[in-house]
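Much of what follows relies on a compact textual record of a protein's fold. Here is one such record, which you should read through line by line:
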Amino acid sequence: MVEKNTLYKIMIVDDIPTNIKVLGETLRADHEITFARSGQKALEIIEENPPDLVLLDIMMPGIDGYEVCRRLKKDKRTRDIPIIFITAKGEDEDEAKGLELGAVDYIAKPFNPVVVKARINTHLELKQHRDNLEDLVEERTSQLIHSDRLATLGTISAAIAHEIMNPLFSISLNAELIQESFAGEKEGVVYSKIEKIIKNTRRISALVDGLRGYSRKSDIEKQNYILTEIIGEALNILNYRIANAGMTADTSGVPKDMTVYCDYQGLFQVFVNLITNAADASDTDEGGTIIVSSHREGNNAVICIRDNGPGMSEQMLNKIFDPFFTTKGRDQGTGLGLYIVSNIIEMHNGRISAISIEGTGTEFEIVLPMGE
């Protein structure tokens, strides 16, 4: 049955005011009624404010009911609105023509109010069930796609790890061999640069392992760490990227002695992802500033990372933690970064959220347990 608490919108289209009045008085107690006295006016109103059902006269000057029905069924925005013809034309061929055009019913004048109400309720109930079924199909389809993507994430991660680790091992090994040849010049520039190459290849190796592990929600090892040390190392890795774009990072709002109970590698990966995103968002001709701050709330550390980029719409903001969703170009992002970040934070019994206003930037807020 039609839900009693639902106020459905019904449009009456008839060029005779008396017919509109009679139908309106019949239905007004149960539904929200609008009306039009011509086919053209009906089309204009429906385009601005689509009703749930249309009661449509056939014989009208100008655009008749058949043409109104044809146009409504041609437009994808209005084609699913049930149309019931109410007319004095009672020939079988007239009824057949109306049904062929897409009408769901045909009521001859003079009409019985009880019959009109019953037929309207029947078609509203059918529409309600159809809409619910379409919503259910859309939801289940989305769930199946989501599950399928997540099922392949572990395989993708393993393949990525394999392809990255082989050349990375070669780079690391050769860098260590070159470093040995400069062992007597440990204070020299070359030795120092090679040391950084080796350190960063090890870091990349750990990040790849993290990608495989966190995509499977594996166990993590948590200890007390100084927050500024983790943020500082992430910034050190991204220093060239930030400086090259003419941007700066301000971490003065992070207390020097604040500790968090975390997996070091996991939280490092979180900051690398979020700071990289902030850098990408703030990368403009005028440069930009990435602001990292934190404060204590009870037994939790609240960490904020803010950029001064273009911001995001509410629609985008609702999807940013979904796997494979990205606001970047096809060749610039995989859509996995923030999904992995949210998994890592969840595994730390923390939470992450984002606020954004278009034109003013985006701020991510992380809440994590303080060091024990």
Q: What stands out?
A: The CA atoms of residues 311 and 360 lie 6 Å apart. The mean pLDDT is 81. Residues 9-111 form a domain with the Rossmann fold fold (CATH 3.40.50.2300).
